[in-house]
Amino acid sequence: MSASAKIFQHNRGSNPVAQLLGELTEIYGSGAATQMVRYRAALDAFRAAYGPGPVHLFRAPGRVNLIGEHTDYNHGYVLPVALDRDVLLLARPRSDGQVRLANVEGDFTPRSFAVSDAIPSAVAGDWSNYARGPAQELTRLLGAPVPAFDGLVSAAPPFGVPRGAGVSSSSALTVAMAVAFAHFADWKWKGAEMARLCSDAEWYVGTRGGIMDQFIALLAERGHALFLDCRPDSAGNFRTRPIPLPAGYRLLVMDSGVRHTNTRNEFNQRVAACRAGVALLRREMPGITHLRDVENAEWTLLEAQLPEEVSVAQLRAGGVELGDLPNVPDDAPLRVRACCRHVWTENRRVLETLDALGSNDIPRVGSLLDDAHTSAAEDYRISTPELDALTVAARQIDGVAGARLTGAGWGGCVISLVPEAQVDEFATHVGRVYSRETGREATIFPCSAGPGAGLVTAVDV
Ligand code: GLA
Q: Is the pTM of this model over 0.90?
């Protein structure tokens, strides 16, 4: 008898297989039966790695962003949607303070570390950092080392979050670890505090993104996008609102297959350009801290104060400091005016998209998504020929509402809202045109707007 055949024997008095299937249906909808196969295989692998006993199953999803790109670290607006592709983490507490990690994917070899008041990070790029970071942050918050556990990660294709595709696989892994540590520490987390903790945990492993990815991974609701105002109020709370996705359409994700691994410098240069814009605008508008503060100012008045291009060294010579930003060389050309224009216009597009979704004006949503892509490509310069080719192919199908790159850029995915009746035609057409234009294969899949991270269930194996 395989381990998975035995997993439910301790759940007497109910039908545990049906119960788990019910839980998976709430999360994955019609995909529950295939997920059951994945969950069972993961439980088998856990038992093989750590032996029989109780297991907790946690999950955290990846995301796409409908609109609102590179606005989060400017305290702007975003509208992300969770994928039903997720990181699954199986865990069992240990009492000796040793965290042990295994992964169903062989390239991630086992790791271990001790919980303590000060957990050192492993070398940059080591996958245990995605557990060390949340363990450290939660330890700091709770004032005592978090409980350790034996963990097994299952995030392989096709169910896992594609890696390096701009759909937040690292945030999903961080969030899954954080949710597990929090559960065993009996910390009842709230959305904003946990999202911040996870964001800080990613800083610990060396990335400097905003808070969008962690918020959507934690707070997503099935069938909905999440409107998030990335400006905290004085109590540190954030305004969020679930936004239903339009009926009759599917949100399709087109993965270009292009993986840009070394984009941190480019990312930080964009952050630097925005900070430079704020510093320069502050001369006329003392008190502003983020580009969000100038959302209601006339663009023509703003742009007059922003240079087209300036280097960090030139800014510094003029008394402008940009704060802590690793990997931005002194002579990096910062395109301050164009970057600020993207953020300023993108924030307006997000709010207009909310209105258009509210009035079910889907063609209007489509044209806002198209404009967002143009702005990302021309002003923020984060597109690639492959992403552009996907947007062109997507727009060739009648009735498709917009196409834009999603996520940080420099590779990854494009999204489109596609009428349900045209999904097959769309996928065939885009796949064919993309491979003709670029010689590459696109992976096209629907975003089913799944729910946020949490404990799925606990069973015995
Ligand atoms: C990355 C970051 C996010 C956000 C996007 C761009 O995914 O992690 O915080 O800045 O890029 O919108």
A: yes
